[in-house]
Amino acid sequence: MFELNQIPFFQEIENSQNILIAGAGGGFDIYSGIPLYLSLIKQGKNVFLGNLSFTVLSKYNAENECENCWSISATPDEDMISYFPEKHLAIWLDNNGLKPPIYAFAKTGVKPLIKTYEHLIKKHKIDTVILIDGGTDSLMFGDEPGLGTPTEDMTSIAALSSINLKKKYLVCIGFGVDYHHGVEHYYYLRNVAKLTKENAFLGIFSLLSQMKEAELFEKLIDYSNNEMPISPSIVANSINSAVNGEFGNFHSVYRTKGSELWINPLMSMYWCFNLEIVAKNVLYIDTLYETMKIEEVLKEIEQYRHSIKINESKKIPI
After folding, report:
1. Bridge partners for 170 per DSSP
2. Contact 134, 235 (CB under 8 A)
């Protein structure tokens, strides 16, 4: 039983000690988990970081941890490429006196990713995995008018749902940021309602500008923008804008110019769910478990979409 004066998600992980926070969709998703990481280490927990990576990891200064997984050090590469979120995160954390193990996962299908997670869980005696999504498209079940960019998110969700671990969670932040990817938030709220009926919704908490975690998050985003000026994170910058009270069609980076954004107070809130039950609600999840390559995941999603009647477009009626 949960208490009104406590956040259910934190009650769930109160006794967790070795926690892996992993970016669901890769890229900058792990950045969205850094405020949570900072909070958990203050609580005395051991926290490890992982991320599905868009970088060709075998070409750079990364130590091969296991097949399809690399350990990322804070040592800069001489030929540092313009896009390497995991490396820049490691350097920024190290500059701030924080040295968590950081792992980058190759973009594979579900079966190889399962092995990666199993290796890290065994090595670090992980008792809890938190999958972090910068955005909300990880909560699209498959029949919505638009799914956003589901391939990597669903690869991660399917992989983790296959692993025998009691505490597995999906945490989303960035309500509204997927608007420009075609996600209709009417359906996001529909899905939250369904998960509520199934006791899988574990509450919401806000990242506020008065918090130390938010202050450090903003510094991380500023550092990242400076180090990777060609590819600043739309999601992370939008979340940071929301934390600082911006609203509506506000643009903080050049990449969004010409598009319409909806920065809003809900964008800076973490939405927490039981990952196992989320996975059971993904209508095509069973078709993903045998995939070896990320392209196979995309193909399965597309084939499923072609086989069903997609729900009609709906706007939030308020």
Report:
1. 131, 273
2. yes
Closest CA to 112 of 166, 52, 185: 52
Which residues fall within 8 angstroms of residue 289, CB to CB, at 6 or more apart?
Answer: 110, 111, 158, 162
C-alpha 138/C-alpha 197 separation (Å) is 19
pLDDT per position as a tens digit, 225-252: 999 999 999 999 999 999 999 999 999 8
How many other C-beta atoms lie within 10 A of the C-beta of residue 57?
A: 24
pLDDT band for position 56 (cuts 50, 70, 90): confident
Evaluate whether 238 touches 177 at the Cβ level (below 8 Å): yes
First-to-last C-alpha distance (Å) of the chain: 32
Please name each of the domains of the chain with its CATH number.
Answer: 16-76+83-210+268-307 (3.40.50.620)
What's the pTM value of the predicted model, to 2 decimals?
0.97
CA 49, chain centre distance (Å): 11
**In 10 A of CB 275, how many CB atoms?**
25
Helix (H) or strand (E) holding 153: helix 150-161
